[in-house]
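Final report, results section. Input specification for complex C-07:
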Amino acid sequence: MAGIIAYGGYIPYNRLDRKHLKEAFGNPVPKGEKAVANYDEDSLTMGAAAALDCCRNINPQTIDALYFATTTAPYREKQCAATIAAVLDARKDVRTADFCNSLRSGSAALLAGLDAAKNGLNVVVAMSDCRLGFAAGTYEASFGDGAAAFLLGNENVIAELIDCHSVAADFHDLWRSEDDKFVRSWEERFCISQGYNQFVTQAVTGVLKKTKLQPQDFAKIVLYGAAPRYQTALARKLGFNPDQIQDSLFSAVGNAGTANVPMMLAAALEEAEPGDRILCVTYGEGSDAIVFQVTDAISDLGPRRGIKSYLENKKVTMNYEKYLRWRELLQTEPARRPPQKRSSLPDMYRNYKKNLPFYGVKCLACGTPQFPPSRICIQCQAIDQMEDYRFYGKPAKVATFTVDYLAESLDPPTIVAVVDFEGGGRMFCYLVDCEPEEVKVEMEVEMSFRRLFVVDGIHTYFWKAVPKII
Amino acid sequence: MARGIKDKAAVIGMGCTKFGERFDCNLEDLMIEAVNEALEDAGIEFNDIDAFWFGTFTSGMAGLAFSNRMKSQYKPVTRIENMCCTGLDSFRNACYAVVSGAYDVVMAIGAEKLKDGGYSGLEVPAEDSDRTLPDLTAPARFAVIAPAYAHKYGLDMKQMKQVMARIAWKNHKNGSLNPKAQYRAEVPMENILKSPMIASPLGVMDCSGVSDGAACAIITRSEDAKKYRKDPMYVKAVQIAAGPGHSEKHQSYDFTTAWESYYAAQAAYREAGINNPRKQISLAEVHDCFTPTELIIYEDLQFSERGQGWKDALDGFFDLDGGLPVNPDGGLKSFGHPIGASGLRMLYESWLQFHGKAGKRQLENPRLGLAHNLGGQPYSCVVSVAIVGNEPG
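Structure output:
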């Protein structure tokens, strides 16, 4: 039986209190916070973080396919899924695809993954979004950033796929044309009454008919909603009670686009009991309704960050100006430093194992782990006696550090730390999601996949340290 | 084991420009200023020089950057680049050339024009690479020493800042007595302590200047030196050590040393026959690019016991009137740091001191002078150490 084997989540550390939007423009705003990707995060890095969370204790070599869904891919032409697969250390013959351009691409990827799972493949599906609304607009306040990921297969599933029903329509309510940075939309009443309410109703009715289930047969309905009031109103109209409606994360994260329902689904699984039925309903040029039934295996699923831990791991001190700067919506004075040089793509490709799955080497002659990989041992100078050694996941501590006020950054000052890994190995790296005054020698850190910089359109991704999340 | 070149080469003339923001000068102007002084000093003509070692970090490519400007006539010119050791490495190679007998009279010249770039701090040309290693600014590369040193020797960061400020204070005080220095004002301790943060805990007053300048030396074999002058300066040792990068990749390194400094100094002391540098060296010009760098140099060069450098600094042992004056000319901190010229500028102070021409900085009866440059970062660098004396033997 095909279904979900494991789930993972990611919510960026920084949250913007929506009151700052009101302070800036005076418009009324919804209560709560929006999760804001750090200046070095994007849909790809957040998707990778959720996928890594999902694949804890999973041998990455058993992954047969990786699908990635987003409406905010860092590249218009260049796949993200292959990058995330490499970060996970999946096999070279992994099947990869990006699902883009629709709010519904998250469930599209999920359904495609479930189809592949039926055929015996182990599929990781990651969904992530980092959408921009126009300044002072509704969407700027309502959108938030985040990601979720699922491992799908047909053995040891924690939630079995029961059935699904899809509706597709050429319905034009939200759009970004090729040159648009911000999401545009038609007048809201049209979007809700003629789009959302219609397609979701058709999809839900369809799947209930197929499964011969009633609303009361479900523990949760995980329903997309542009705002909680639309979600609640429609769910109730469909016959669900308020306590069946999965929280939309609107006030803690915001609407994370194509990742929104997947994140809600991960949150629902965190609370689910064996036997629970979950109805998962997405929206975007139609609707996908998917019925899962939770199995006994859920009690054996190992600990993970999921949504809950990330909801708690946050800082809400950022102001609106910082948000504008991180998203480069405000042109700040350039530092008086030489322009960043682009990465050499041949060198990046040669260093694939270092840069993506984060491998160093270990000397077979003297046992010294070392990073970055090299052919001659730093300790005993033995030549070509190295074996691959993956540093990802190794506990690590700060050996020494500095806070650099001279380095150019979208979020100065820059913290540089020397990180020592348990078992040996040391690297210099940036430390982010951390206040300068909080850094200490011996502080525990972990590694996070981030975007270092973009030059000539080349996104250079690599690992940075972040304070260890408890 | 190689015997080295102790007393085999001698300097017969030196020149050094005023260092600083020389917006009025180009590289040619700076080199002419230094070369003219050295030629006059040695009493020879430009065309008497057989070959040149031209050191610059980023201000020109190939020997042509020198020959085109100075109009040297189809003579050998070797361009040297070895980061901050560029000047001393030009000197080392020039010395070997006369000692080998390949040439009779050679010049080592270092010149740098940094202030035409328009950036804050030093601009280091980037290699083609995947660019994933952190691209640290120069102050950040050295700032990491400070918390580690304080942690190891039980200083709190307030004490550590005092030690660092004391070093900056000393070098500015010395520089105030030097007409060629970039910064000629004494700076009160409190101003150093409260200077704006650059890379914590380094404030701007913990950092050396970015400067334009040039310096040069004319070198012969020692046996020929007296033909040119009665008081040449003898080369006792000139060594360089390039590290394998072990420190930045291995947890055994604790950021309170630059091993390259230690090994280069050991080699130089062996070559010069020095066994107690703290007592035997009369003056040392060392690479105080940032104040914590000078602190660990005291220990790496064995001027101080490990963990004692900070006390010696506070006690004034390295002051102009202390047991071993360090950076009597103001150092990189106050004299300035035009990369390629700095090593030769350091030797120029020994030259002046040996000839009684150091003005208000004049030391009593100096006999041995040391110059030390560190290129890179404390955990992965190239270090030059040269030792010169006012008499053979």
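The radius of gyration of chain B is 19 Å. The domain at 138-196+235-389 of chain B is CATH 3.40.47.10 (Peroxisomal Thiolase; Chain A, domain 1). This concludes the modelling results for the funded period.
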